[in-house]
Write a sequence for this structure.
């Protein structure tokens, strides 16, 4: 499949169950992406790809640079201190 | 590939206990489920109007999760209930795209809507086809279908 103007062949949304009933695929930001789908988590998606014999290098997939990853950590109050320690010390080591 | 089109919810017809026992789903790679239809209301807001037939475990997310655990890699289903005739039209367009045009399962309906918009783009505003297009392109129809799992799957 040739890359579209957006440069993205397909997009998988991993949504919280609280907002899964919303048709988020219809957002304008996804308009130029030919295929938008959903999955439950990364692990399950990888399992599906493996089951289909997916080969990353054949699908314009050269991985994602660690430095370009972004994340949001929103822990419950009881875990705020532990989360700070995790984000501040453990995550940068990964 | 397994395609289901019915007024009756798939999990109502095949309870989860039966689904997990059926080896048929273990061999299934992709599913199309159009089982959310309502003859009287075009949209059931499940937070406001909860039908007495509403069963939390039979909602699209739960059905997709169950079939995913059974090994199905791609599941196309509806978010909400629409009229049977609208559902049938979407089912028809989806299958035509996948089986006739060889499109990816996750891209078939999106391509249909794009080409449909192009067809009427050059028509005069008072052309009846434009009114039909506006009626059929309502978000209620356009954004009803969603794909779970791997969308880049072709039926060969």
């Amino acid at each position: 499949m040739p890359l579209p103007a957006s440069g993205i062949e397909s997009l998988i949304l991993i949504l919280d169950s609280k907002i899964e009933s919303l048709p988020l695929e219809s957002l304008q930001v996804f308009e130029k992406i030919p295929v938008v789908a959903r999955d439950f988590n990364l692990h399950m998606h990888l399992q599906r790809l493996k089951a289909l014999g997916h080969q990353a290098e054949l699908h314009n997939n050269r991985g994602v640079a660690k430095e370009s990853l972004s994340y949001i950590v929103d822990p419950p109050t009881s875990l705020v201190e532990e989360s700070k320690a995790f984000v501040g010390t453990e995550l940068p080591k990964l | 590939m397994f395609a289901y089109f019915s007024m009756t919810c798939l999990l109502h017809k095949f309870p989860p206990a039966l689904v997990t026992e059926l080896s048929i789903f273990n061999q299934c790679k992709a599913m199309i489920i159009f089982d959310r239809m309502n003859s009287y209301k075009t949209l059931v807001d499940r937070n406001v109007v909860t039908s007495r037939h509403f069963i939390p475990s039979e909602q699209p997310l739960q059905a997709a999760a169950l079939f995913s655990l059974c090994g199905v890699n791609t599941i196309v289903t509806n978010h909400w209930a629409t009229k049977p005739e609208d559902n049938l039209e979407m089912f028809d367009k989806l299958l035509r795209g996948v089986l006739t045009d060889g499109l990816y399962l996750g891209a078939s309906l999106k391509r249909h809507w794009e080409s449909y918009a192009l067809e009427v783009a050059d028509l005069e505003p008072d052309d009846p086809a434009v009114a039909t297009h506006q009626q059929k392109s309502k978000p209620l129809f356009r954004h009803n279908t969603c794909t779970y799992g791997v969308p880049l799957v072709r039926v060969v």
In short: Strands of chain B lie at 2-5, 30-34, 74-78, 145-149. The two ends of chain B are 10 Å apart (CA to CA). The first helix of chain B runs from residue 10 to 13.
